[in-house]
Amino acid sequence: MKALIENIQHFSLHDGPGTRTTLFFKGCPLKCVWCSNPTTQSFEAELLFKMDQCLACGTCAAKCPQNALDFTEGQKPTLNRDLCKNCGLCVSTCTGRALVMAGKSYTVDEAFKIIKKDILFYQNSNGGVTFSGGEMLSHHEFVLDLIKRCQALNIHTAAESSGFAPYKNLFAVASNLNMLFFDIKHIDPIEHKKITGQDNILILDNLQRLVKEVNTPIHIRLPLIPGYNDDAEHLAQYGTFISSLVGIVDLEVLPYHRLGSTKYTMLGKKYALENIKPQTSEELKTKVEILREHAQNVKVLCTG
Amino acid sequence: MKLTKEMRMDRIMRLKNQFFTHPPSVCIEGAIAKTAIFKETEGEVMIIRRAKAFKKHCEAKTINIQEGELIVGNAGAVARSIHVCPELSNNWIINELDTMSTRSQDPYQITEEQKKQYRDTIYPYWKGKTLRDHWNATAPKEILDIVNIGGVIDNDVKLECTPGDMVPAFPKLILPLGFLGLKKLAEENLENLDLNIIENLEKRDFWQSVIISSEGFSVLCERHAQEAKKLMKTVDKARKEDLQRIADTCEFIAHNPPKTFHQAVQMVYFVFVGLFIEGNAGGYSPGLLDQYLMPFYAADVESGMHEEEALEIIESLYVKFGEQIWYWNAGAAKHYSGFCAFQNIALGGLDKHGNDAVNPLSYLLLQAAIDVQMVQPSMSVRLSKKNPEEFFLKITELIQTGSGFPAIFSDEVGYKMLMKKGIPAHIAHEWAPIGCVEAQLAGRHFQWSSAGHFNLGSAVEFAMTNGLHLKSGKQVGIKTGDPATFTSAEEFEQAVYKQLEHLLKKFSTSQNILEQLQYSHLPTPVAAMFTMGCIDKGMDLSHGGAEFNTGPGMNGNGVADFVDSIAAVRHVIFHEKSSSMAELAKAIHADFKGFDLLQHKLIEAPKWGNDDDRADIIVSELSEYLGKTIGEYRGKLNNAKLPALYPVSSNVPQGMSVAALPSGRHAFKPLADGCSPSQGRDIVGPTAILQSLGKMPHECIDGGTLLNIKLTPALVEGMEGKARLSSFLKTFLDLNVFHVQFNVVNHEILRCAQKRPEDYKSLLVRVAGYSAYFVELSTDIQEDILSRTPHTI
To answer: Is B589 helix (H, G, I), strand (E, B) or coil?
Structure first.
């Protein structure tokens, strides 16, 4: 069994307690317009072009079997994404390391070997492993295998999910985890479809069943995107809905940030939220207050 | 009125501001005294002459008590003045009189009057009498040829300094006896001495030198008491009380062992003033300060001293430590930059029963470092998982300041290093890191920890050039064959190790000459009387007077450059076979110009510091080689020499001597510092760095190993950051790494500091085994610090 992983990040600080290793799986069924990790959306390995690192040597163009790289002496090459087959042959020739592949295939053994490297760090910090993405449930069997192996060595496991997957897959993974971060982006199915490409019926159903059927602590996450899901009316609905669920640990608000925008450029894509500014801390405070008002049974956290 | 935190901080901030009003300057009072005494004592034995010169300076020097001070004294006339020792520095001082105030690294202010006096009266007397002069006269040409190239093997540190590198024997000798108690010991030994036994003649000279030196200290204390009394006439009531305390304290310890905490601290400080007067050197270290000051602290607390009062005294002491300067010529100032004297305080650890030794003073001494944030003293902790979590968290609080302190040492590895050196297990727990990262038995041990540097990068370069030093065009290495003819990685590596063996042998020989020179010409009665064993044996340090003698250390630069180069040749040339040794040799001569693709492949090859066994195994091989080879060399006292891998800041100037390397590093760029990964090549993050470092046999590299990790503030902020660092340190201990230090500072701040140095005068950064004021570092060292990967998420 193999899975495509975009990045394995050591000494990870978020997504669970202590010092963690986070696996970012490739492939996501949602296409959130603000996605801060666009390099994990596609289920295939993809070529990234970091233009400012390019030394304009032209070696890549000579190597490309698809003629997807157009090079004129003295200028940086242009990459024709329609021709590029993401074969990666150019990457090993790139002198400036401007061309890199997002996504590498791992066996469970290989991934677990990397996870195990930092076991002392987990033990000393009550840390562990976090499965993230993309959508880790796109690789649920792979993830489950890793979780079982972690359990055998007493390594803490956490995962972040959009909840957009068949319930049985979600259940199988979630029931074995030590903690789960569950993202809800919007309460309204139509709005949800507008901003993520899919409606939220499956997601909300999944969550409502899951809270009843598993003992795993579930943390809800709300990425708060100015103009998309942060109006007062929506936040009130959102808070009320979360409050109605039994057994939620907390609701964590993730303030909008633009750190992922450069990744769009590397992918040759346009960042849809170019003109949106992050909330000020004052604005953030007001919005969190609305959530708190309506989600009275739930602790609302915000780190921004 | 009870001392409040505000009152204490007000005093400390005033002292700190006062500190920065003193640019480092030259003091030649000591040189004048020494010259006069030496002229008077022609024909007497050297150790007596040096003791007399010491005492004379104590009697004649300017006494300077500054506004707000509680702890007083300086080796030179004023704060931050370099106390010039002409017998060590005459050769370069005469050449640099006109440039030392304007040079780029560590300038010293000097007046025209001082220059004239130096030229007219000091220089002529010492001409031909310095260690440098003796060296030039006695070192064989083959050694001079390689040393004079610069950056391949460098040995200035023991050619222009006294040994330094010591912790005075405070708990067992100095604090219980006082200066006059030491004098009495020497006098008792002299009584009924049978001079018909020939070796007793040298002993007599030694004990007499101890008597003279002790008297010097006593005079120094008394003169400070007198000066304090004199100043009392002109000041307000509050300051008058301070001065009365100073006068009483100094007067008491002039004649007695200390009783109070204040007296003990002042005595500790005078000991260091005296050591700097005796000889310019680095690494005069206070050692286990929390342990030996604890009885004084406990007694004073019992009789009513508040924590604030203790902190005020400690913090006054810290400011004073910063005023002592280990001075250098222009070239060597790049190796030891930042006006830093490496006075290492070591806290915590375990006691003789193997139990937690952290005490209330350990916390106060850390708190004082958080409050004061000065370049000196160097703060270290001896850490064990048996130390309480509160201690771990207090350490992380100091790390959060971004001052680069404390240096963290594994107590267990330090303990094992001492046992490897032959120190008995039941006393090895008294180990302390001195200077940067060198483990010594505090107060009982003589070891040239830092005795220059050899260049691991040069060994690689010479294997690629058949012994040619590309920068100078001279044949410095041996002939190991045209690298184009190497048909296997093993053949290349054999050539590298042959070059290394050649460098080590030359380096060891140069050390031997230096040891011989110091043995013959540079006795150090003050350092000796503060080291256990010397007074008992009646013997100077360099003659083997200390209870335990080890070393010298042989200190290498460029671990990562060496490892990454071998890994790259293995991987690119002989595994992937995507280039050839011939092409690599050409690329190195061309500094990769026109070889971009090859350089890219070399950089992509496995690198040290990423928990990648393909690179890390090479460090094990290198460590084994160094341990075996260096351990077979013997020094003057017939000790095995010690392998050491810490740079001070010499990875920058030694890098300037090395051509491009197979690691992909460009010519003349800094080498990696200590055992840290190459700058910017640690791409997996801090956990992988520790894992890699954990594969080194640290206790076998008993001269010391050093690791710097640069972290961005986001990683260490708040309670979460403390918990993160605390757990990181526990893993550091689990992995048996010897030393780690953290630089918590972001690029933005450093760039601002470069643009507006005046606004960042007090910005401390970690250089290597020590911290320095960033704006006082030269541009190339600033750039080196900037190039080390900051780890953030």
So the answer is: helix
